[in-house]
Amino acid sequence: MLHGFACGSGHWRHTAGPLAAAGWCVYGLDLIGFGGSAQPALRLDNRLWARQTRAFLEEVVQAPAVLVGHSLGSLVALSCAGFFPAWVRAVAAATLPDPSLLITVKRRRAPWRRRLRRLVITLLCRLLPLELLVPLIAHTPLLNLGIQSAYNKPVIGDRELHQLIAWPARRPTAAWALRGMSIGMALRPRGATAAALLDRLSQPLLVLWGDADRLVPIEVSRQLKRYKPDLELVVLPGVGHCLQDEAPLRFGGLLLDWLARLPDPTPAGPG
Hints:
The protein is an alpha/beta fold. The chain has helices at 16-21, 46-61, 72-83, 111-127, 130-138, 142-148, 159-169, 174-187, 194-200, 243-246, 248-260; strands at residues 65-70, 88-94, 205-210, 232-236. Helix 2 (46-61) packs across helix 3, helix 4 (111-127) runs antiparallel to helix 8 and helix 5 packs across helix 8 (174-187). The protein is globular, with a radius of gyration of 18 Å.
């Protein structure tokens, strides 16, 4: 289970238990830069997180697995399935945010434009006073407003949820990770975008989306079948961006039903 931006594995607090009770072996992974993982001053993007996930599957799980992602975690799950297909049985994505899904015309920039873009993005991200902005948000009511924007139901007052988001953001290295992610995600190649990854995905894909999602509107979900026509899309009425946490019973029921319909895994693991 792969969490979304600004979260950690604890965001599956209402989902992991029922899956385990249904007989599934469940792991929650804190992606590098989030949760309890290190927050290095490195470029972070979905390619690195896909390699982290693959390493976890190889060293700990030691078998192909179903990857369940939320938001950014969905992109990581998709990336791991695309780059390391032998390790991924299927992908379930609770929303899939990526600007590439809204681009209808693919244009190749001249080399000098690409170099200029890299320079400008890197310079802007390094000039941003994130060491001041991140603590300001993490220690003030602005954090509550940010959390609430991801939910359709009221969650201000949910202390467990607030602590889950606040603790990583209050670590002294949080600004380093945010800067590295901002640069890395902005400068990743097209092959690491959701559009390109969906084009190459061969495994089954379930996509769940809340129709009251204010962060990644439901309209984005309608672009997905352009890239993978055989995906299964399910819309949850009245649910916001964090559907696995806001509507865990509906989310878990749909996920378990889909898992039950997956083809049996092949007996031999990756070579």
